[in-house]
Amino acid sequence: MTFWDAVAALPLGSLVILALALLIAFAFEFINGFHDTANAVTTVIYTRTLPATPAVIYSGFLNFLGALITVLFFGAAVAFSIVNLLPVDLLIDARSDAALVMVLALLLAGVTWNLGTWYLGLPVSSSHTLIGSILGVGMANSLWEGTGLSGVNWAKAGEVGLGLLLSPLIGFILAATLLLLMKQVLKEPRLYRPPEGDDRPPRWVRVVLILTCGGVSFAHGSNDGQKGMGLLLLVLIGFMPVHYALTVNRPEMAPDVLQAAAAIRTEFAQHNVELSPQLDADLTYITTRLTGRTNLEELATVEETDAAGNPVNVRWELRQAILRTKRTLQAMESVPERYPAAMLERLHEIRKKQLTPAIEFVPLWVVIGTALALGIGTCIGYKRIVITVAEKIGQTHLTYGQGAAAEAVAAATILGADFAHLPVSTTQVLSSGVAGTMAANGSGIQAATCRKILLAWVLTLPACVTLAAVLFWIGRGIVG
Q1: Does the predicted TM-score (pTM) go above 0.85?
Q2: Per residue in 36-86, pLDDT tens?
Q3: Are residues 275 and 369 in the same domain?
Q4: Residues 231, 113 share a domain
Q5: Which run of H or E residues covers position 304?
Q6: For residues 59 and 215, is the Cβ–Cβ distance under 8 A?
Q7: Nearest to 260 by CA among 374, 181, 347
Q8: Last residue of a domain, one of 334, 359, 384
Q9: What are phi and psi of 9, to 5 degrees?
Q10: Looking at the structure, do residues 226 and 345 belong to the same domain, yes or no?
Q11: Residue 393 neighbours by CB under 8 Å, 6+ apart
Q12: What is the extent of the structural domain holding 422?
């Protein structure tokens, strides 16, 4: 089954809503471009390193490269930290109209809050916006269905929340520390004074500022670009769960998954570890469905029924079996003292190379489309946030040294979060980094602006949770 086959199978109403949902999802990433990435170009513009137009084009291009290169060569773990916040089973188990309402509610909530805060010139976190919207629809759906708050993966939410909570603190402390170290090593006074008249930084400082701007832009693309991809995957899974249950990038890996199931059994047998009934059943299902098959797309024609005689989607059931197997192996790795080290090492390799790619993937058109939306968005509408960060956080104009320190720390922090598979806020890291350098430089901080920014940071998550939940309830009330 191709993408177009899956699209053609949708009713006209669902097809229209799918087109709308994809448009809003790309719009979210477009807005993210000029909302968040304005932080990256602030320093090069306000230190007169580059004029505004080439600065934003340069930043936009590196945002595009960051989103594209990171996913193509290093995987999309950050994207799936977003996807896994909302158990995708909710999109499948719910009636189709409820799933559509869920997706549209979280999209509209995210776009509304981002546009509103941008209009006010407040550099809030698009990450908080997206995550709050996902949590809002997840909780609203489970409350609607009478299942408490089970509609959210709270363990994953805790991991994501920790990254978002710590990143601004890290940005403030490290940027302040770096600036103080620079003052000890680089004694040139003009690095730490606001530029006067037509003064421009020394050539070597300009190179550093351009490189740090590029580093923040690339890092933002690599991290926030994946969040947009995760958002689009929620849309695609919600509307076309059969097609996107298993990888469309490498459908020929059916023999690899089959081999993985056999290798897992072998490892358990060789080390005299008993298979749990669920793992045994999942491995059996994988083996039964993939024996003799060379392509995962062949499963689209396989018919199956459950105990009640209802039709079952084989591709989705296979996804669930692979996902449960993957989680079982991950759980084993969390208690290494209970299993032989050689066994865990081999199971880790099987999970990473043969199981995970079958269910965690980003279609190439989603990667390119998200990267383009982020890059183009960077070039438009950046001025409101730039003015706030450069002129309204500190009591004096941004200095050359402050710009270099804040951006170097932001780039390093965001890239480090990529390796830790955590989504962090570019806005929070860089804005808090600027504040840290202002404090370290004795430049003073504008308390009124910082209070507004802090209030916006604090309110973003609960506001988006509430907005998404309200939109979901309204939508459910309309569709019944």
Answers
A1: no
A2: 666 677 777 777 788 878 888 888 888 888 888 888 887 777 777 777 766
A3: no
A4: yes
A5: strand 304-305
A6: no
A7: 347
A8: 359
A9: -80, -10
A10: no
A11: 431, 434, 435, 438, 445, 446, 449, 450, 453
A12: 3-244+363-479
